[in-house]
Structure formats: structure tokens, C-alpha cells
Amino acid sequence: MAESISLQDQGIIAKEFMIGLLASMNITADVTTREIDAETIEIAVNANPPTELGVLVGPRGATLQALQEVTRTVVQAKSPGKTDRILVDVAQYRERRVAALGRFAAQVATEVIETGEERALEPMSAADRKAIHDSLTENSSIVTRSEGEEPRRFVVIAPA
Questions:
Q1: What are the backbone angles phi and psi of residue 152, rounded to the nearest 5°?
Q2: Of the candidates 63, 91, 119, which is a domain's last residue?
Q3: pLDDT in tens, 39-98
Q4: Is the peptide bond before 151 cis (omega within 30 degrees of 0)?
Q5: pLDDT over 60 at 1, yes or no
Q6: Staple partner for 84: which of 39, 62, 72, 80, CB 3.0–4.6 Å?
Q7: CB neighbours (10 Å) of residue 91?
């Protein structure tokens, strides 16, 4: 089996790809890399003002998710071995999305506790489902579970 390239080198490849992509789209932005843990690197794209970056996020982060997959594919193509986890974030979208999902989940959890009836949320990505589950783990009055099949998998919030 071929030797994997380092996480830092994977970050360099991903960053160079992102810089080239932005240049081809005539988007001026800063691209940085940050090690999240020993197996995860984040490629962050930021601009001031961030208004022209919306095209990279798309509706509910769909374009951002695709951009992350393409970036991961580029890195995999240049790596002879296994690659690590590569996250792409644009204008702190992921952080803002997790916070918004947490607020939404807390509101739904309150309704579930008050009515005593479980509630199924709309289908969402694995990352969004994880954000919902994580935001409610401390609430002992409810339980969460994922149901359905991809791409229509969803979270159910139910009384404990």
C-alpha cells in the first residue's frame, strides 16, 4: 500500500485548488487552513465583505457540500494513499448553521415536551442531523433518532 501524504500536505493541495477555483470565478477571498484534529483539516474561505461568497454556499449549504466533495476528490487524486478528513467552510457558514440548528432544535424540543408528541423534522444532511442530535444531548426530557433512507433521512425528536 502506498504511503499517505501528511495532513499538512493535503491542506496545501486543497488550499491551492481553492485559490485556483476562486481565481477562475473572479472571487477575491482569503483561503486559510487549520488542523482541527490529527485527522481533520479545514479549508476556510473568507472575504470582507462576504457578500460574493454566497454563490459558494448555495441553498442550505448544498453548493458548499459539493465544493467540499470536489476538494476532497482533488486531494485524493494527488495522494497515493489514504486521505484524511477535509472540511471546507465559507464565511463561517458551518458555525452559523450549527448555531441556527441548535436554536431550532431547542424550540422543537420545547414543543415536544409541552405536547408530549414526537415530531419528525424535514430530511437533512448527515452534518445537519448530527448538529441536531448534538445540540439536544444534554436535554434528558427528550430523545432523538434518525430515520429514513438517504437522501431523505430525517431526525425525530420524541419525549423521553
A1: -105, 30
A2: 91
A3: 999 999 999 887 789 999 998 888 999 999 999 999 999 988 888 899 999 999 999 999
A4: yes
A5: no
A6: 39
A7: 22
Max distance between CA atoms of the chain, in angstroms, equals 57
Question: Between the CA of residue 33 and those of 9, 69, 71, 91, what are the distances in Å?
Answer: 11, 16, 13, 13
Q: What is the rounded average pLDDT of the residues 136-148?
A: 97
- Cβ–Cβ < 8 Å for 85, 132: no
Residues 134 and 148 placed together within one structural domain of the fold:
yes
Q: Are residues 102 and 64 in the same domain?
A: no
- Is 70 exceeded by the pLDDT of residue 2? no
pLDDT at 70: 97
Q: Which of 46, 74, 91 lies at the terminal end of a domain, its last residue?
A: 91
Let me know whether 17 and 79 are in one domain.
yes
Q: Are residues 109 and 40 in the same domain?
A: no
Q: Tell me the CATH number at 73.
A: 3.30.300.20
Helices within the chain (DSSP H only): 7-24, 54-57, 62-77, 93-115, 126-136
Q: State the helix-helix crossing angle for 93-115 and 126-136, rounded to 10 degrees.
A: 60
pLDDT of residue 7: 92
Whether residue 19 sits in one domain with residue 84: yes
| Domain around 149 | 96-159
Name the one residue in this structure whose C-alpha cell is 438517504: 150
